[in-house]
Amino acid sequence: MAEAREPDVSANDPLSARAETLARIRSANRASISDARTLSAEEAWRKIPRNYRDAGLLTESDRIELFTERLREYGAGVYSSQPAQVAGTIAEILQKRNKQTMLLSSDVDPNWLPQTGARFVSDNELSYAEMEACDGVLTGCTVAIAITGTLGLCHPSPLGRRALTLLPDYHLCVVDSAVILETVPEGIRAIEPHRTQPITLISGPSATADIEMTRIQGVHGPRVLDVVIVA
Questions:
Q1: Into how many domains does the chain fold?
Q2: Neighbour tally for 100: CB within 10 Å
Q3: Does a structural domain hold residue 51?
Q4: Boundaries of domain holding 21
Q5: pLDDT tens digits, one per residue of 100-147
Q6: 218 lies in a domain?
Q7: 142-178 pLDDT, tens per residue?
Q8: Rounded distance, CA 163 to CA 169, Å?
Q9: What pTM does this model have?
Q10: Is residue 78 domain-shared with residue 108, that is, in the same domain?
Q11: What confidence score (pLDDT) does residue 56 get?
């Protein structure tokens, strides 16, 4: 006859299991705190595993194609221009959009400006009301990320006040193909020299949705975004 065994109460006892789990958490936390105390903040940051791809593999033409595709998916207008034709391209876009008065950020190349058509206003500490009275803003771009279709603008130098990219209802951005990078890590490294400045990252026209999934554009930035890619 087999000998009867006492049931293993601890294996089925939820209180014992809970106590064991909490003990393991406390032990792990103590080890983590001990490690953190022996490492500087920079050393601890460098120990974080980074197994993602942090460099692009695409050619310049493929980066531009991917960036263009992403922008159009967001609903942005995308135009191509050669360096000598930027002013003409901008004139055509503003005429199409019926924009008469445009704000300028401080990085705008004077050669970009059409000689006829819209009036261009430099931001010399304009009031918010004066800025909102303009039809839109024309800016350059510090960095662009192809895989996310993101524009990176750094303030206050050389792009001017951050309000320029938030208050106007329309944003026309000129992007040199040389600043279009493939991946997010590359983009972050590119704006590292500007880390002490406010940075605006723009992925398509401003939009949000409420709990009923009603999409509204222009809540915290321009409703309409056009991008001129210069290559």
A1: 2
A2: 13
A3: no
A4: 14-46
A5: 999 998 889 999 999 888 999 988 778 889 988 999 999 999 999 999
A6: yes
A7: 999 999 999 999 887 655 678 888 889 999 999 999 9
A8: 12
A9: 0.75
A10: yes
A11: 86
